[in-house]
Fold:
Amino acid sequence: MSYDLKNYEMPVNQQNGIHTRLADLALAVPFDSVQHYQDYISRLNQIPRVLDQTTEVMRRGLKDGLMPPKIVLEKLPAQCDGVIAANPFLLPTKKFPADFSDEDKKRLTEEITKAVNDDVFPAYRKFAEFLRTDYNPKGRTELSIESLPPVAPLPGGITAYLTSLAQLAAVSPAFRQSVVKRTSFR
Structure:
């Protein structure tokens, strides 16, 4: 991620973004104790704030003309809808540790379900609607990074920058491998 180029103002795409990473939350945290479940519920309650903050960053990108291509953006609302349909947030209610009491299992299931229905799903719907109505229509039609507006001048321009990267790749096999790995460029 380049802060000079303000890539952070385009934080979502069809392969990655907060909308897909949050869907993996239940797979990323432990569920060995009642406290772990309570912590998870607290995290679920914060999802609206996280998606709102992401929306604000994306609005700055809109203002700066830093938009991903439309072809990428068209897939995002359906991904949000898919997260809602799959509802991975309830996964922890499907397998409790054996030593949990029935009362704890019932209470935690109710609290998680309430957080998902009252906080998570409305936030995902709001984010998907923002994508559909405000963000996607303003996506760029060109795929090339050169179609983005200039944010910070590159010394010598983009050609000089790319030439310097090519020179580094020629000199350093390790650098070349890192470029190949990150960009699938061969």
Remarks:
- The mean pLDDT is 83.
- The chain has two domains: 7-152, 154-186.
- Residues 154-186 form one domain.
